[in-house]
Amino acid sequence: MALDLVSYLLIVLVVVLHVVVLGFVLRKRPKSIAGKHVVVTGGSSGIGLWTAIHCFKRGANVTIVARNMQILSKAKEVIEKSRVNDEQKIHIKSLDLAKSYDVVEAGMKEIEDEMKLPIYMLVNCAGLAVCGLVEEVSVQDAKFMMDVNYYGTYYPTRYVLPKMKAAGQGIIVITSSQAALLGIYGYGPYAATKFALRGLAETIHMEASQAGVDVTLALPCDTDTPGFEREEKTKPQETKLISSSGGLVQPSVVAERLVDDALTGSFFSVYGLESWILSILCVGMAPWSGFYLNMLQIVLLSPLRLVSFFIRRNFNSIIRDCAKAKPKKD
């Protein structure tokens, strides 16, 4: 029995190595965004700011969108340091993406007019998190997260999508979260907004890929951003312990992977072993991302399902231990 198990694992390892090597050799070449217009929402800090920097390094003209004009101006100065040619332009736009579609539509039109270029690539990075048990997060906060995280992505995406389809080209990045792959203690209303974004990304991919529009769903793990610092203030202890297993990643690294994946047409953009495992476990009916990657997913899905049992068991153990440590209510 032991020999059979070892043989099986060796076969899996050999297949995985072959698939990885073939995938590396045959990987797609990234598209060029030099001279094209990239719009990054939530571009004044964190992953959004670093995404704008990496796009600017590739020769793109960049517009960053957020609400606070003062922070946007400081972000522009940071991005300027990555200029690669004198022709590049960088604009900033103060816009409340959650206000209404009419407001966003008017703002996006102004962005295109100011840059004098159509939007070739839209990177949706605006978002926030308020943590807590489902019954503890206020209804107002739950609605606010849906407005910012979902509608703040849906509105600008809704604006660019028909234009990109008509042009026969374009890239849309929807930044979601690992919380779009599984429900996590203390992330209930937030996870709902991120699951919604995954559904939006998969639908747009099915509707628009034949028209030449690429869609990438970014699933970042815990990232060292100002948003993460605010999120930590509302996290239950159970949530902190569960999410800490993946460590804390720098936004520059996550953003670089996001840009690379978007330009090579990958549907999922993940960073780190934990995120990669979760994306395979939860791949479901996600878009086909190339023969070799899908063969790898097929081979690994069964053994990783067993791994997931122990991961969930660990999560449940954390929750039980925390419950024991809490004072009992009268």
Automatic annotation (TrEMBL):
Pathway noted in the entry? Sphingolipid metabolism; Lipid metabolism; sphingolipid metabolism
Q: What is its EC number?
A: 1.1.1.102
UniProt keyword list? Endoplasmic reticulum, Lipid metabolism, Membrane, NADP, Nucleotide-binding, Oxidoreductase, Sphingolipid metabolism, Transmembrane, Transmembrane helix
Cellular component terms, GO, for this chain's entry?
A: endoplasmic reticulum membrane
Membrane-crossing ranges are 6-26, 267-286, 292-311
**What does the record list as GO biological process?**
3-keto-sphinganine metabolic process; sphingolipid biosynthetic process
Q: Which reaction does it catalyse?
A: sphinganine + NADP(+) = 3-oxosphinganine + NADPH + H(+)
| Source taxon at top rank | Eukaryota
- Name the Gene Ontology molecular function terms of this record: 3-dehydrosphinganine reductase activity; nucleotide binding
Q: Where in the cell is it found?
A: Endoplasmic reticulum
InterPro entries the UniProt entry points to? KDSR-like, NAD(P)-bd_dom_sf, Sc_DH/Rdtase_CS, SDR_fam
Q: Which residues form the signal peptide?
A: none
SUPFAM superfamilies attached to this UniProt entry: NAD(P)-binding Rossmann-fold domains
Q: Family assignment?
A: Belongs to the short-chain dehydrogenases/reductases (SDR) family.
| Role played | Catalyzes the reduction of 3'-oxosphinganine (3-ketodihydrosphingosine/KDS) to sphinganine (dihydrosphingosine/DHS), the second step of de novo sphingolipid biosynthesis.
Protein's UniProt name: 3-dehydrosphinganine reductase
